[in-house]
Design brief:
With 106 residues, the chain is α/β, with parallel strands linked by helices. The protein has helices at residues 68-78, 93-105, and strands spanning 7-9, 29-31, 54-56, 84-85, 88-89.
Length: 106
């Protein structure tokens, strides 16, 4: 199944690690919200999934105290190739807005 699996919807399952997904080389969509993933380093394991483009992570302890928008750069640090995060298309416009705001405040 791993060689052909394209979508994996496993939200609300008390999952704490992202082990075992490396064989899923065709995986494009991973919905794993509302689980027990605490460590941002777990996202590094998803780099073994070259076609992964749509990820749902909110509701995990690693997001605690952060909005989706605040968590986005941390996710992209580990998964720079994804196109959709937590149901929102990543366009790059948010990055430009944040840079502009930072320049204005400097």
């Amino acid at each position: 199944v791993g060689a052909t699996l394209r979508e994996l919807w496993i939200s609300y399952n008390s999952i704490g690690t992202l082990d075992g997904l490396a064989p899923c080389t065709k995986l494009t969509t991973l919905f794993i919200s509302n689980n027990k993933i605490k460590d941002w380093g777990e996202l590094v394991k998803l780099q073994a999934n070259p076609e992964l483009s749509n990820v749902l992570l909110f509701g995990n302890p690693m997001y605690e105290g952060l909005t989706k928008k605040q968590a986005r750069p941390k996710v992209l640090e580990h998964l720079p190739r994804i196109a959709t995060l937590d149901g929102e298309l990543l366009t790059g416009e948010d990055d430009a807005e944040e840079e502009g705001a930072a320049e204005e405040g400097a």
